[in-house]
Amino acid sequence: MKQVKNNVKNAIVERETPIISLENVRIRLGNRTIQENINLTVNEGEFIAILGPNGAGKSTLLKLLLGLIKPSVGTVHIMGRPPRRGNTDIGYAPQHRVLEADLALRARDVVGFGLDGHRWGPGWPSRKRNAIIEKALQEVDALHFANAPVGQLSGGEQQRLLIAQALLTNPRLLLLDEPLSNLDITRGQEIVTLVNNLCRARNVAVLLVAHDINPLLNVVDKVIYVANKNCTIGTPEEVITSETLTRLYGSPVEVVKALGRVFVVGAET
Ligand SMILES: Nc1ncnc2c1ncn2[C@@H]1O[C@H](COP(=O)(O)OP(=O)(O)OP(=O)(O)O)[C@@H](O)[C@H]1O
């Protein structure tokens, strides 16, 4: 009985532990300070957009969570533990370049690469491995082009494969680096809807790096805005305001709302 109680207690503690916790984090690369003092918490199942100008440190933040770089000051916790490379609780889709048109690999093989280094990686021609790949392809609505040569797929279709790859280990945190870049408005919106559905259905926390908040405005829970070596987190209504962004950039910024869209003016955004 005591064991059962302990198990329940541990399960509750585990559930209540934030997915990400950053305290007083400073990031330096080479001899440059990229971020001064990051404090933020991300909870289970939250859908969060990371925004900010080129070179502000959005991808660097993802690398920190992946354990690829270390903070020079402060603490980083992923599900209560320091970040570590190869953490299967994290699914990561890196920034994507369109693949060569003559690349003859099948879409499903490319997704399968996501299992490399995993216990169902190559050398496991098992039904289990194929079933995992099939499920991920289905979740991103890619079954109908699963056998197509990947180089012939559109940017949006290739993006779905990257997301499928990131889902293979059933992660609790999904890191997507600019999945909307190079997509037209309709394809971009389809990816946003897909990611939102995955986030809600799986209760997986999602950090999605983007340059434009507009396609995400109606679906994200929060925004992390990175600029001028600082970052801030809050709901879009809290963060995408003239006051908050002027404070963050340290120079005048105007947030203009028109035609149902939001425009950030006056800063290098
Ligand atoms: N090893 C390094 N040494 C020094 N500076 C680096 C190193 N790696 C990256 N940087 C710098 O860190 C800054 C942040 O880069 P990062 O790629 O995180 O920006 P970003 O916000 O993702 O930009 P973008 O929107 O253009 O992709 C950039 O100015 C980059 O030049």
From TrEMBL:
Keywords: ATP-binding, Nucleotide-binding, Transport. The keyword Membrane does not apply. Transmembrane segments: none annotated. The keyword Transport applies. It comes from the Bacteria. InterPro entries: AAA+_ATPase, ABC_transporter-like_ATP-bd, ABC_transporter-like_CS, Metal_Ion_Import_ABC, P-loop_NTPase. One of its GO terms (molecular function) is ATP binding. It holds the Pfam family ABC_tran. Residues 20-253 form the ABC transporter domain. This is ABC transporter ATP-binding protein. It comes from Dictyobacter formicarum. The lineage of its organism: Bacteria, Bacillati, Chloroflexota, Ktedonobacteria, Ktedonobacterales.
